Amino acid sequence: MSEVLTERTPRVAAARKLLRRAAREDTGRFLLEGVRPAYDAVAQAETDRGAVTDLFVTEPVADRERDLLIRAREAGVRTALVTEKAIAGLTDTVHPQGLVLVCRQPRAQLPPSPRLVAVLVDVADPGNAGTVIRTADAAGADAVLLAGDSVDPFNPKCVRASMGSLFHLPVLRERVPDEGWRRLREAGLGLVVADGGGELDLGPPTDDLLARPTAWVFGSEAHGVPDEVAAQADHRVRVPIRGRAESLNLATAAAVCLYASVRAQATDPPR
Known about the structure:
The protein is an alpha/beta fold. The chain is 36% helix and 20% strand. It contains eleven helices and twelve strands. The protein has helices at 10-16, 21-27, 35-47, 63-74, 84-88, 126-138, 156-162, 177-186, 207-210, 227-230, 250-265; strands at residues 4-5, 29-33, 52-57, 78-82, 99-104, 116-121, 143-147, 171-174, 190-194, 200-201, 214-218, 235-238. The strands form two sheets. The protein has a seven-stranded parallel sheet with strand order 8-7-6-11-9-12-10, with helices on both faces. The protein has a five-stranded mixed sheet with strand order 1-4-3-5-2, with helices on both faces. The two termini are 39 Å apart.
């Protein structure tokens, strides 16, 4: 890696286009920034050649980055030193971490006999969506489904917030919510909407309900789950607010609900 690439180098210029959703959809690739999630991406490439095509890094290269570069090269990833200006053009952060990968979007399918799925409907905030993906991964969920006008899960901010979890569980997209509901029901999942006006309080009264295979449906913080979606749910469940806060933010509510299902199902020990 003696040559240092600039922002004008064709490889760098092509990667920079992936900051735009249209380019990600056309190519099926996305940008991933940071050392910690990069290890997840390279681990994927070690078993799935082509999962990562390029790794761009600035000097100086830290010890842990050297290990990552060695593993990446052995997995067939093209690695290159680039200028600070080039790395800045590959990220939308104020202080880039100096390491950016070009990754293939993982193929996502709903696994057989799922027991827990998180569904986001019309969630536009990429930070919230990425955090829910990470939370669903931590809770051992089988998949995440982004329905309707939800954000692209490969948006750079969503990728950062997910912290590598995009490589750990299937993240599906369905523009037509009704088609998503059909797929979930065919998989044997009940639809439970998280709704501040729901008929059930989350807690012991919902344990039997949540012990069954469940798809938790969450809406945007501003508007909640659309009425037409909530009307198709099997149940609407609210998280009790004991204090004076008006509500919980989306990521926090999702964590509470998903872990309520984990406790109710209680079939596998924590990992």
